[in-house]
Amino acid sequence: MSGGRPERLGRLIADAQLDALIVEGAANLRYLAGYTGSNGLALVRADGGGRFYTDFRYASQVAEEVDDAFECEIVTGELLDAMAGALGAGRVGFDDTRTTVSRRARLGELAAASVELVAAVGLVERMRAVKDEREVELIAAAAALIDELFGWLFGGRLSGRTERELAISLEHEMRLRGASAPSFASIVAGGAHAALPHAQPREAPIEPGTLVTFDIGALVDGYCSDCTRTVAVGEPSGRAREVYEVVLRAQLAGLEAIAPGVSGRDADAQARTVIEQAGYGEFFGHGLGHGVGLEIHEAPRLSRISGEQELVAGNVVTVEPGIYLPGELGVRIEDLTVVRADGPQLLSSFTKELLVLD
Question: Please, are residues 318 and 334 in contact by the beta-carbon 8 Å criterion?
Fold first, then answer.
C-alpha cells in the first residue's frame, strides 16, 4: 500500500526547502514504508529515496514489507545514532513534537557540522489525512464490524449486566469477528456515569430507565473505526428523550456540513448551534470530531479551535456531538464519514433511532 508515498513525501520535503526528513512513529512508518514492526526509523530525501533503519529482530520483516524506495540497514545499537552518523550535508527536518530534547541534542552531537537540523512538523501526517480508496475500504470494513457488533449486542439483554462485562464482551466478540484489537479502550457508561465523555467501564450494573452510551472501535488490517450509539434500557424519561433528540438533530446538522472547502470550525459550529439554541450549549464541551485512520485521533480536527483549515475530499472524520448533564445523564451519537465532493459518505450505518431495550 506504500507505493508512491516516499516520492510524494519527497516533493513535500523539497517544498519545505529541506534536503531530507527524519520519519519516526509506528503509524508514519507503516503509512510511508509498509513497515509493521515496533522498532524503526527512516530518512527520506527530497528525491523520494531514503534509508530505513531497524534491528536484527526485524531483518526478515523489512525485507518483505519495506518499500523499495528505501535501502535497509540492520543496526546494532541505537537507530538514531546510526542515522545521525550517516547524515549528509544539508537541511534535515525532524518532528519536534516527537523528538525529545535529549534526542535532539544527541542528533546535534553526532551529525556532521554541515548538517542543519530543522524543526519540520506534520509532513507525513498531512499526507495521511487524505485517504486513498484502499484506505477507505479498510476503514469501512472496521466500521462495518462495529455495526455488526451493535446488532449482536442489542439483540440481547442489557439490564443488570455491568458496564465492564459489556465492554469485555464487545472486545472479545470483535476479535472473534476479525479485529486484531479494539482501536481504543471501549466506553460503556450508563446513567449519570455517561455524563463523563471518556468514562471508564465500571463493575456497576445497568439500571432500568437509564440511557447507556457505547463508544467502540475496531482495528482491522491496521486501520481504526470509531462509532458511538446511546440506547435506553427500559423506558427513558421525557428529559432523556428530549436530550437525545437534540443531540440527534445536532449530529445530522454536523453531517450535512461535511464537505470539501468547509473548515473544521464551521462544521463544528453547525452542530453546536443546534445544541446552543436548545439551551444545552454549556454541556457540549468537546469538538465535533476528528480524523481517523492508522491512528484513532489524527488530522483533521473539527472543533471551535480548528482554525480555517478546510476539509478536502478523502478526509475520514467522526461527527460526534454530545450533551453531558453532570449527575444525570449523557448522550453522544457518532458516525464515521468520508468527505466526498458530492456529499459525505457514511461508513457507520447502525440505526440512530433511540432504541428502548431490555
Answer: yes
Question: What's domain 5-128's superfamily in CATH?
Answer: Creatinase/prolidase N-terminal domain (3.40.350.10)
Contacts of 115 (CB under 8 A, 6+ apart): 87, 88, 89, 90, 92
Mean pLDDT of 23-50: 95
CA dihedral 92, 95, 98, 104 (to 10 degrees): 40
Q: 2: pLDDT confidence band, cut at 50, 70 and 90?
A: low
Distance (Å, whole) CA 135 – CA 14 = 26
- What is Dmax (Cα atoms) for the chain? 72
Rounded Cα distance, 322 and 333, in Å? 7
Fold of 133-357: Creatine Amidinohydrolase (3.90.230)
Does the pLDDT value for residue 1 go beyond 60?
Answer: no
Q: With beta carbons less than 8 A apart as the criterion, state whether 320 and 333 touch.
A: yes
Question: What secondary structure does DSSP assign to 120-167, as a single string?
Answer: ---HHHHHHTS--HHHHHHHHHHHHHHHHHHHHHHTS--TT-BHHHHH
CA distance 309 to 306: 7
Cα–Cα distance, 4 to 69 (Å, whole number): 9
Q: Where are the domains of the chain?
A: 5-128, 133-357
Tens-digit pLDDT profile for residues 279-301 = 999 999 999 999 999 999 999 99
Q: Give bridge partners of residue 73 from the DSSP assignment.
A: 53
Report cis status (omega within 30 of 0) of the bond before 300: yes
Neighbours of 56 (CB within 10 A): 9
The pLDDT of residue 31 = 97
Amino acid at 92: V
Grid cell at residue 326 = 453532570
pLDDT tens digits for range 224-239: 999 999 999 999 999 9
CA distance linking residue 194 with residue 178, whole number of Å: 28
